[in-house]
């Protein structure tokens, strides 16, 4: 505003004797930052990426084939009871039964000699 | 040494012009000034690259929001005044600069939109003062006003009344819309080096700049409890 008299402004004060502001502590900076974020004064730095979680181990499939067996109802019941009693999967039960059958087959073959 | 920060979340309100006018007047009185150019467009750095920059003005570009604290700390140890010119945007850079400041100035043009954005700046200045447990002196600066108060539009007068009602201090001298102030950026140098052939109303511009700088220094003394 030019209405103000243009007096000499020579007496610019020296502030040499004033104490300096101390450097803000991390807690003070965090408090100011938090308060500022509510007003839109947000950081422009990208937030650091969260550490990656270890990838879950992929379980390899054991029983990759399937067989459809027509059987008597009582045999199916016996098979399922056997599986349940021995806490086996049906695939493991089948392996076991084949092992027994082949061992018996071999035993009979040796007995016939 | 005193640190003066210019901020406003809105661009184009006159932060950089106000910073440069203040710095050149202080430098012309013999003070050493470090201007921290914290605007990613680096307008002050470009001004400094032109001829006519006084030897006692140093311009430092710094846009890192964390590093600006150390940059201000180093500057205040080697200069009589440090002026931080922020970009027209709300950012954590502004928050950190406020934490290191003795005086915050919020330039406002005479519009309701500017005043609304300035209100956010005033709140953040108060937040910074609370966080550092030491109040931060602040004031609004009217920029690009008509040279005579008689020509001030109703909008501008309403903004001034609202600031007074809200208890926001106002730098008594407004910075008028002047070709000499714009010329600082196109021609480089200071108002002292311009001639009447370069721009019109040069004496009025110099008087305006001097009166403004005097008011700022007075505010600074009051803010520092002097």
Please describe what this structure looks like.
The complex is a heterodimer of chains A (113) and B (226). Chain A contains three helices and no strands. Chain A has helices spanning 26-37, 73-85, 90-112. Chain A starts with 25 loop residues before the first helix and ends with a helix. The radius of gyration of chain A is 42 Å and the shape is rod-shaped. With 113 residues, chain A is mainly alpha-helical. By secondary structure, chain B is an alpha/beta fold. Chain B is 45% helix and 17% strand. Chain B is built from eight helices and seven strands, in the order βαβαβαβαβαβαβαα. Chain B has helices at residues 15-28, 43-49, 67-76, 92-99, 112-131, 154-165, 179-187, 202-223; strands at residues 3-6, 33-38, 57-61, 81-86, 103-108, 137-145, 175-176. Chain B has a seven-stranded parallel β-sheet with strand order 3-2-4-1-5-6-7, sandwiched between helices. In chain B, helix 5 (112-131) links the parallel strand 5 and strand 6 (137-145). In chain B, helix 2 crosses helix 7 (179-187) and helix 4 (92-99) packs across helix 5 (112-131). Chain B is globular. Chain B starts with a strand and ends with a helix. The model of chain B has no long low-confidence stretch (mean pLDDT 89). The interface between A and B is large, with 31 and 59 residues.
- The rounded Rg of chain A comes to 42 Å
Mean pLDDT of chain A: 84
| Overall pLDDT confidence of chain B | 89
Beta fraction of the residues of chain A?
A: under 5%
- Taking pLDDT < 50 over at least 5 consecutive residues as the criterion, the unreliable ranges of chain A are 6-14
Helix content of chain B: 40-55%
**Biggest sheet overview of chain B:** 7 strands, parallel
Instruction: Tell me the series of helices and strands of chain B, N- to C-terminal.
Output: EHEHEHEHEHEHEHH
Instruction: Quote the distance from N terminus to C terminus of chain B.
Output: 14 Å
Order of helical and strand elements of chain A: HHH
Outline of chain B, from the CA principal axes?
globular
Strand order of the largest sheet of chain B: 3-2-4-1-5-6-7
Total DSSP E strands of chain A: 0
Q: Which oligomeric form is depicted? A: heterodimer
Strand content of chain B: 15-25%
